[in-house]
Amino acid sequence: MIRYASRRLLAAIPLLFVVPLLVFALIELAPGDPAVVLAGDEPTPDRVEAIREELNLNAPVLVRYAMWVGDVLRGDLGTSFLSDQTVIELLTRRMATTMSLVLVAMIFAVVLGATLALVATLRSGGIVDRIVNGLASVAIAIPGFWFGLVLASVFAVGLQMFPAFGYQPLADGFWPWLSHLVLPGIALGLLPAAEVTLQLRSALGQVMKTDYVLNAEAKGLSRSSVVFKHSLKNACIPVVTVLGFRVAEVLAGSVTIEMIYNMPGLGRTAIEAVQGRDIPVLLGFVLFSTTVVVLVNLIVDISYGYFNPKVRS
Amino acid sequence: MGVNIKARKRVVALISVGALAMAGCSSSDNSGSGSSAAQGEIDTSAVLKFASAGPLRDLDPALQTSYGAWGYLFLVWDRLTMLDKDDKIVPGLAKEWNFVEDGGVLELKLRDDVKFHDGTPFDAEAVKVNIERGKTLEGSTLKSDLADIESVEVVDATTARLKLVKGKGVQLPASFTGTAGMMVSPKAIKDGADLKNNPGTAGSGPYIATQLVPQEKLVLKRADNYWDPNVGRLGGIELQRVPDAAARLNGLQSGQVDLAPLSSAGEIATVEKIVTPGSGLQQNQVKFKNVVGVYMRANKGDVAKPEVRQAIAHAVDPEAISALFSGYCTPTRQVVPETDPSRIPNYTYPYEFSVDKAKALVQQAGGAKVSVTFAAGTNAEQPANVVQASLRAVGVDATLNPVPNTENEPRFIAGDFELMVGTSWSPKADPAATVNTYLLNTYKLAADPSLIADKAAEAANPTLSMDKRAPLYQDIWKTTLEQAWFLPLCNQTNANVSKANIVGTDNIPMSNIGIWDLRHIAVKK
Asked: Where is each ABC transmembrane type-1 domain found (chain A) (predicted)?
């Protein structure tokens, strides 16, 4: 198992450098000049050139990439063009927001999705099963940003149960932290919740038709016992896979949710970096996102190996 | 002032707001009042929560790259002069100013009762230190503002004499209403204080910065013993950057925000619906000085042909643009507002809307091809589409060129585009600065500067009264419009929306150019 995990990890490392290189190239190919943007509302040619020199923007792209890689290997991701903050400082602070948001969204997705799937399975073929399937199918089609706006209108503006926007660190208290995450977390977690529901319900349905489950039922075990004790672990394999992929999608989806709820997270950081041509921050964000996706995929692969030993070979 | 997070099961509200969210509609009455008239006992411990889209990078006045950041700085740094809500230049740290010695010197008489919050007295030496810093600091964005000052002489503690480049500097009293006039404690400068991120007590403004999170928020507390007793009446202010207008509106409605500016037509229309009697909100609408218009690079591509520029000027109907903004963009055919002394009286724009005349001019030019640049996702987007359609209707091969919001202005200034639809023509407090910014320098719209340069130089004579300068600028505006270097279309409307207990929302200087000087804002108990 350790050899398998190590092999997967080593295979993922090149991605951490290839993806930023692609981003470097895309920034280079995109129209516009970061120095012109950074020079402000009324830039003078002298100021633009001074910024270009200061930020080493006149150097060839491969030279700048090599310098960036060298700095990264020394643990330095550079300093934001738009403020005095180091990229590490900026990303670390904003990562807490996004990680909190993703955590709440995924907990919501797993709890709601698993609950609905289990309820549907226990009421297999009945009206509850059909309603759960129908709702999950509809939820998949609902855009997260629209759902986020509706939640804000109803529960923040209308009922004033939760804040309309912003973020409070956990250090400010559990409820202030959670209250700022409930609405965006639900908006972000709706899609994965629907997918967990459908995947788990489907997987449980298949497992329930296998011989060993039929045998257990024939022995007179209760349906809940069959589902929870004998079926759930095997049915988890596709769900874990889906969840792994969803983490990456939820991270991507956090961009719009963070904008709607004005949360100072990584998504908003990425948008501001793109708009402000803040190359160090953008590259830092890409490196971080790539790392997260690689790690999540690795965890998915490893858990897949845990659930199904045949995969390790 | 904070968020009410008590769970209240108001089913009716849930249903109605839910329906509102789905249908995108709401009630239509409008209380529409300002607030100064509604005086009451002021809560001097209140902390105002303000939300705006303005960029917030750092607090050093000499390093600001965006006008949008000025609002944060006004509260921390006092200025030599200030603008009032009617755009009149009024005393700040300078009580009086006069051009003397045939306009070669600008003499400032300074207040003698001001100290920086670190205890350093404000005096003429502080003016000298700050102007020299602005002129020499690496990366200073004040260099062009202060370029007309050759040197600063300290006559005594309350008198500073600015020696000017010959025949220049007439706009300086107006420039000092912005970052160029902001004063920093000489001691803090000498000590190398972190003015960008943690200026502490380096200012003499009505509030002191206690926390800055770049691009997110600025927290201020009141500075005790401020020299103007009518200012600084809040316990503190939390200025939060909320780029999304819908989030700002939600914040106002949920009670999370006390005051927020809103600007686009859609936002104003929504404001009209939600600010109703009993809503707990009030609004104060302000007509923007900024002009929505078409910038033309009259020496680039087909726009270099006078017939093409004239055709474009004939082809676009300001009423059609105004309609796009639900009427919240008042058609205009001038480049400065009614309050500007250089406004042309009884003016008839030479290129009235006429499809036939535009078609004839395009044919006369042998056809034309232009790219209509605009900032994607901004208030310029819809007008740009109408401009493109209007040009196509008269035979111009017009294509749309959307660019990121951060890039359209600098790239137009750099000469990348021949035509741009923008919302940023912002007449300055002095017409000399408007000419300098848009026509002769920065934007360089005057493709043939000789047509206006002599008059601009004559009008910049500091010894002339505004009565004598105004006709010269009126001639410059007429030339600008005749040459179709810029095609003015309309002035948008801004609304400052606030809770009903906020006082002073009808006295927010510079909100007519999208900036906000919150020094007069207070909260009633």
From this structure: 95-304
Element holding B487 (H helix, E strand)? strand B486-499
CA–CA dist B512, A303 (Å, integer): 59
Residue B159, exposed/middle/buried by CB under 10 A (0-12, 13-18, 19+)?
middle
Contact across the interface for A41 and B409, Cβ inside 8 Å: yes
In angstroms, the CA B443 to CA B437 distance is 6
Instruction: Look at A153 and B20 and tell me if their CB atoms are within 8 Å.
Output: yes
Please state, in angstroms and rounded to a whole number, the distance separating the CA atoms of residues A145 and A153: 12
Helix (H, G, I), strand (E, B) or coil at B395: coil
User: B168 in the Ramachandran plot: left (φ > 0), alpha (ψ -120 to 50) or beta?
Assistant: beta
In which band, very low, low, confident or very high, does the pLDDT at A265 lie, cut at 50, 70 and 90?
A: very high
Alpha-carbon gap, residue B484 to B446, rounded angstroms: 10
Q: Encoding tokens for residue B3?
A: 């968020």
Residues 92-121 of B with CB under 8 A from A: none
> Which of A42-51, B116-125, B152-161 shows the lowest per-residue confidence on average (mean pLDDT)?
A42-51
Closest CA to B314 of B278, B350, B358: B358
Q: Are B472 and B8 in contact (CB under 8 A)?
A: no
Per the confidence metrics, is the pTM higher than 0.90?
Answer: no
Scan residues 7-26 of B and list those with Cβ closer than 8 Å to A: 7-10, 13-14, 16-18, 20-22
Smallest Cβ–Cβ distance between A161 and the set B7, B215, B240 belongs to B7
- ipTM for the complex shown: 0.78
If you average pLDDT over residues B173-201, what whole number do you get? 96
- B7: its two tokens: 């769970």
User: CA nearest A276 in B: which residue?
Assistant: B406
